[in-house]
């Protein structure tokens, strides 16, 4: 198939966009290939423009920005946390969630777990 997956598979076999363009031009007898084909091959030539990571994480939400600030400023709590997602949300590590809940409770922060 002439799609992103197909052009990626072709590239893995040493067949690049220029080869495909030349082949299609030759077998179709067209002076210029349709723009859609050129766009698909152009994307294959340039490769990905960025990367993303998909993770299964817990999101910890606070009821006030000050609570999250306190948590991030407290080393004993911060070690359980990941990236800040906003003024009142942060990623929480799954592997130590029980320890995080205990540490929050010890500091007077009530925890509600929603599943």
Record the strand order, biggest sheet.
Answer: 1-3-2
Helix/sheet category: alpha+beta
Radius of gyration based on Cα positions: 25 Å
Helical content (DSSP H or I, runs of 4+): 40-55%
Helices and strands, in N-to-C order?
HHHEHHEEH
User: What composes the largest sheet?
Assistant: 3 strands, antiparallel
Number of helices: 6
Shape: rod-shaped
Mean pLDDT: 88
Number of domains: 2
Distance between the termini: 42 Å
**Strand portion:** 5-15%
Oligomer: single chain
- Compute the number of strand runs: 3
Low-confidence stretches: none
Summarize the structure.
The chain has 115 residues and is an alpha+beta fold. It contains 6 helices and 3 strands; from the N terminus they run αααβααββα. The protein has a 3-stranded antiparallel beta sheet with strand order 1-3-2, with no helix packed on it.
Would you give an account of this structure?
With 115 residues, this protein is α+β, with helices and mostly antiparallel strands. It folds into two domains: 43 residues, no CATH class; 49 residues. The protein has six helices and three strands. A three-stranded antiparallel β-sheet has the order 1-3-2, with no helix packed on it. Helix 2 packs antiparallel against helix 3. The longest helix has 12 residues. It is rod-shaped, with a radius of gyration of 25 Å. The mean pLDDT is 88.
């Amino acid at each position: 198939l002439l799609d992103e997956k197909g052009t990626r598979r072709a590239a893995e076999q040493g067949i690049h966009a220029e080869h495909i363009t030349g082949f299609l031009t030759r077998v179709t007898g067209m002076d210029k290939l349709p723009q859609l084909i050129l766009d698909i091959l152009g994307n294959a030539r340039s490769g990905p423009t960025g990367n993303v990571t998909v993770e299964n994480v817990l999101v910890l939400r606070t009821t006030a920005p000050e609570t999250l600030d306190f948590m991030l400023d407290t080393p004993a709590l911060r070690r359980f946390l990941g990236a800040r997602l906003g003024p009142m949300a942060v990623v929480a590590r799954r592997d130590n969630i029980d320890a995080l809940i205990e540490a929050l409770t010890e500091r007077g922060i009530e925890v509600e777990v929603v599943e």
